[in-house]
Predict the 3D structure of the following.
Amino acid sequence: MKRLLILSAMMLVTACAGRQTPIPNAESPEAKLYAEKCDACHSLPHPKRHSYAKWQQMTKLMESHIKEKEMAPLSDGERKTIMGYLKENAR
């Protein structure tokens, strides 16, 4: 019985591991920009992962990582678009 439980748990974890919840309005220009910029370094976090206030903190942190990696920084327009998308779709 214990083996069956362990096997079932492993199958569940494996089945869920490759699936990512689609982001809201994935085909919108705002969502596409969010995906393009944020998926460049790590897996794309769902906007509901954080509150808007937390996203503001996270964005500042990510911009410092972008600078450290000598990548092109977000333009003011890109930042405004991404933050607007996150504000609309945050928790």
